[in-house]
Amino acid sequence: MSGVGEGLRKVEVRIKWDPSPFGEPARHLDIIGATYSADDPHGRPVYVVHYESRSPDGTINMTRHSETGMGFGYVEVMVLEFDRLAPVYGRVVVGVAIHQDGGPRTFGDLTNAGVLVVEGYRKLLVDDFTQVADATAATIAEFTRDASGRWEMHEMVRGFDSDPVLFTAEMGGVRP
Question: Looking at the whole model, is its pTM more than 0.85?
Fold first, then answer.
């Protein structure tokens, strides 16, 4: 868990992966963020942010997007500005999904894949998806607002066997 002093303010979620071998379809991963109301933190997301969208108020958006990985480090970035997020929101779940174009792919099929969550220069989470190698999508972190209004991060690396569309519906639910 993270969140010191005033709590989290501006966080970046970054992912990396190597491109497909020559002749194979492109490997395409996406960061997905789902925002939940304070009144129903495990219900349906109020809104979902991914590469083709941003939050209605601009507090969660993609600043970098890749459809191939490129192999040049962290090539996809989502910025979450918790210090500007309205008090009606109490939970944000962030995950990564693999597009399934060209056949089923799991995190174990990728090379040099990883996620980094930072606030400024402080690393909050570093993961290489090894623990979810058989999954096609994974949650990474859960951000929650406490009773005093401070945002905290909880590591939540959990694998799912679903495509990006289905993953957005199930990623924030309660799992056994």
Answer: yes
